[in-house]
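Subject: Predicted fold for Acetyltransferase, gnat family, 181 residues

User T.R. writes:
Posting the sequence so we have a shared reference for the thread.
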Amino acid sequence: MDASFRLRTLKPKDLSEVAALLCRCFYPQEGWQSWFNPIMQMGIFHDLQSRYSVRLMPFTSLIGAQIARESSVESELVGTVEVSLKSLSPWMPFAPSVPYISNLAVAPQCRCQGVGKQLLFACEEMVRQWGHHRLYLHVMDDNTPARRLYAKAGYQLIDSPPSWPNILFASPKRLLLCKRL
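User M.O. replies:
I've generated the C-alpha cells; pasting them so everyone works from the same file.
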C-alpha cells in the first residue's frame, strides 16, 4: 500500500479505535485469554474517556493516522501514545510529577516503518514545550522490539525493581527508562 501517516491529537471520535488498538497490542489475541478482550477493550475505552474528559494537568494523547498519498483522507489508525505529568511512585501521592509516556502502541502491520519513532519524538517536543528536560517511560523486559526502539532513541535504564508478580508468577520485569532532552 502506497501510504504515509500524519500525527494529530486524539479526538473523542477516536476513543473506540484507540481502545481496540491498545487491546490488540497489549493483550493476547489467541487462546483462552483472548476471550477477555471485549471486556479489556471496554475497560480501556472507559479509562481513555475519563482521561480525555478530565484534564487537570498537562496531558496529550497523539495518534498516527494512515493516509493515502493521493488524498488527505485518513484511512486507519496506525499508532497511539499518551504523554502526561505523573508521579513515578504510586505509593507516594505527593511525590513530584514528571513527564511520562504511556500506551505507546503501533498497529502490528505498521511496525518498523517509523511510526513509533515519530510518536516518541512528538512527545519529546511536547515535553520540551512544557519546560521539562527529562522524559520517563516503563517497558516490559521481554518486549525486545520496544526496548530496541527506546535504546535507539536515547532512553536509558534507570531502575528495574522486582515486584511480587515478577517473583510469584515469573512474569517479565517492568523497566523504568529515562531520556534527558
